[in-house]
Amino acid sequence: MTMRRAFYIFMLILLCSFAGQAQDISQNGNQVSQNSVAQKVKVFPNPATNVVNILGLKNSNRADIVISDVYGNSLLRYQWQIKTNALNIPIASLSAGIYMVTIISQEQKVQTKFYKK
């Protein structure tokens, strides 16, 4: 009987700990909204050769676009207007590899990766 009671107490503590984590995530609405924006972005072609296209962005008068390598070194920088919820970024000058693209504007901050072949 005590073993069964210990099991129920353990399960109750476990469930309470999960409920506490769920509340922390919902209270931090800013972080959740940034993550959901990043999930809706589509990058293609992947792997890319000359241009990488990014769809699902919010239109903006001015966006800072930074392409960096996997070590965080900034390789290309652009400042463009985002129209029709998309960007076409020229990458012909990059070597083959994995890259991160970061797009920062008043409306959003998006970071995603792409492959250059």
TrEMBL record:
Residues 1-22 form the signal peptide. The keyword Transmembrane helix does not apply. Residues 43-114 form the Secretion system C-terminal sorting domain. It comes from the Bacteria. InterPro entries: Secre_tail. Keywords: Signal. This is T9SS type A sorting domain-containing protein. The lineage of its organism: Bacteria, Pseudomonadati, Bacteroidota, Flavobacteriia, Flavobacteriales.
